[in-house]
From TrEMBL:
Coiled coil: none annotated. This is WxcM-like, C-terminal. SUPFAM superfamilies: RmlC-like cupins (SSF51182). It comes from Prevotella jejuni. Gene3D superfamilies: Jelly Rolls (2.60.120.10). CDD domains: cupin_QdtA-like (cd20292).
Length: 141
């Protein structure tokens, strides 16, 4: 496992097994991914110019992988933003709690796979950016 960490996000390179019949990558909970995986979901057929995400989580951490194609993930901690181009199926972006995320610039045929720490809970989401900034400012006091 190889990691590239910044102040807002962390790119984690997963094991890549090279085989002439096709390569294989894997991710194990609590080994490659620093949490137990409770939910897996994926987005695909994203129309040109569309944006996904646009929210933050209070508790649920996520690991985002471009299993096909590419897209950009922009993370925002309320003080600064950083964008990550995901375009390798053997790398993923660890998104911690209290981070606003948006996904855009999807290539044709892109597939975004998300490994989530928690089952779906609408109460864990912050879907309004102004509410997110208020939540972060109160939490940091």
């Amino acid at each position: 496992m190889n990691e590239t960490e910044t102040s807002i996000g962390k790119i984690i390179s997963l094991q890549k097994i090279v085989d002439p019949r096709g390569n294989l990558s894997l991710a194990e909970a609590m080994k490659d991914i620093p949490f137990n995986i409770s939910r897996v979901y994926w987005t695909y057929d994203v129309p040109s110019g569309a944006c996904r995400g646009g929210h933050a989580h209070k508790h649920c951490r996520e690991f985002i992988i471009a299993v096909s194609g590419s897209f950009t993930v922009t993370l925002d901690d309320g003080r600064g933003k950083q964008s990550f181009l995901l375009n390798h199926p053997y790398q993923g972006l660890l998104v911690n709690t209290d981070i606003w995320r948006s996904l855009d610039d999807f290539s044709s045929g892109a597939v975004c796979l998300v490994l989530a720490e928690d089952p779906f809970d609408e109460g864990d989401y912050i879907r309004d950016y102004k509410e997110f900034l208020n939540y972060i400012s109160i939490k940091k006091k």
